[in-house]
Design brief:
Elements (H helix, E strand, L loop, with lengths): L1 H18 L2 E6 L2 E6 H13 L12 E12 L2 H14 L5 E6 L2 E9 L2 H14 L4 E8 L5
Antiparallel strand pairs: 1-2, 3-5, 3-6, 4-5
Length: 143
């Protein structure tokens, strides 16, 4: 009888010792049971990966689009149209470009031809010959 009692006690104590290595974690209705050694590994992993990832470097120039509002060979006429463009569209960047022998007025910086089309419709009311031109632009300037 003592042998049976000692075997039962030994088996029961084995279960008690084995359960001491198990950790219970509760998240709402969910209970997760895992070994203590696994938790230590997770803590080490969190320490190693706690540094933020390096920032993704953006390119300086991107493919984009602008609206060519006007072009002429006459500088004074182009400067007058630039003033008119700036007064009609104060929220958009506009500038005068010179490519010998033409002066061109361009408006805005857009991500693509499609994104420039909505502004083009507004610009064509004042400047019917306006068109969208694709070119390389600085990425930070794109709306």
């Amino acid at each position: 009888m003592q042998i049976k009692l000692s075997i039962i006690t030994l088996v029961f104590s084995g279960f008690l010792v084995a359960q001491s290595n198990v950790i219970n974690t509760e998240y709402g209705n969910l209970t997760i049971e895992w070994e203590k050694s696994l938790e230590e590994l997770m803590e080490k992993k969190e320490i190693c990966t706690s540094a933020p990832p390096p920032p993704v470097k953006k390119p300086e120039f991107c493919r984009g689009a602008r609206i060519q509002v006007f072009y002429s060979k006459n500088r004074s006429e182009a400067e007058e149209k630039l003033k008119e463009t700036k007064s009609l569209f104060p929220g958009e960047f506009s500038n005068l470009e010179y490519n010998s022998p033409d002066y061109k007025i361009k408006l805005g910086y857009f991500e693509s031809r499609e994104s420039a089309n909505s502004t083009l419709n507004k610009v064509r009311r004042a400047f019917p010959s306006s068109l969208v031109v694709e070119e390389r632009v600085r990425c930070v300037l794109i709306d």
